[in-house]
């Protein structure tokens, strides 16, 4: 039965006097936002006497037969301690082996995971913790407010699917490790999950990886050899090994390296895109070495590679760093011959002679219709010349006619024997070099770009001829 009530004064004091002998209990009403501290933890004169849940003290006996001032008659030790009301957020991090986003008994906890507490906006870091041996973490002493939890994915894992089932058993971390906003209300009972939330969990899925290297196979032996350079900027695709669907893509870095990480257990293929003027080297010359080339020379596609995340981190079955591609450079050439067209037929015949020492210029189309000189050579003793190491492009060859000669008539017949130099400027027509063609194809290695020369007649100067003067001779 409630007998009386009062309010504590500015000094926190209260008093019920004029009590007759009997048994009493004092009940305190806690202010909003506070809790009672633990009961009877020390000496009677200084500890708290109220039950933290009910706010009631134990029964107190008042005996008026005792002298005034005796604690049994005038008890001044029925006190109540209060503390700010706090909430908490926890609780569990586990390995989601089957990638379903739900905790099952066979899936193990993950100790040592870093967990951060942020404000509800995710802009201010408030606290941090590390999961214990049982995968547990706890942020306590939280005031009323909104919070977010951020989990740092352990090496070799990615966050599981978020919020796919019962909040007691599912994962609350998104792909970046963030939980949803969690509201804590300390005015509620300690047993209320809106005050003490033990259901902010995170599952992490084991993953593997695929890499690793693209290089120029300069000696064309199909193996990585010291001194052979890495190739930057090669496009690489990750392919589903079963369906053939493209899953991801990347580009090799300055060291020729690429990496597809965060891979679930499964079958994969890698497809490399050969840069312009290159081909893939011979596949699998020494398959067990880890130094050979893996893509098909035609398609750029490797065989299927199985990733098994049940193996330890760094194991080749989980993290495969041996899917490489060697490239060979496709280059073309332009060659031909200069000759003295003695019979002025415009074609090379038995009576014609080789013309050595002729300067020959190579022009390359750098922008549409614009040709820039890129090289020059001089014909050898047999009148031959050759420009090597050409990439795919349009070219022209220009011949510098020897002193006392002019160009013969061009393009009169068999291209392997006639002259190709335009008499107006000494240039050939456009020669297209396509290094993706076989080496034996004239579209890659163009051979018959020739120039024939005829002598300038005595009555001509700078190719301008005048009639001979005809004189009448007396007999």
Automatic annotation (TrEMBL):
Primary localization: secreted
Domain SD-repeat containing protein B: 3-82, 88-204, 209-326, 336-436
Subcellular location per the Swiss-Prot or TrEMBL entry: Secreted
Region of interest (Disordered), residue spans: 46-79, 401-427
Keyword Secreted: yes
Start-end of Polar residues biased regions: 46-56, 401-411
Keywords assigned by UniProt, alphabetized: Secreted, Signal
Protein name stated in the entry: SdrD B-like protein
Taxonomic source organism: Arcicella aurantiaca
Source lineage: Bacteria, Pseudomonadati, Bacteroidota, Cytophagia, Cytophagales
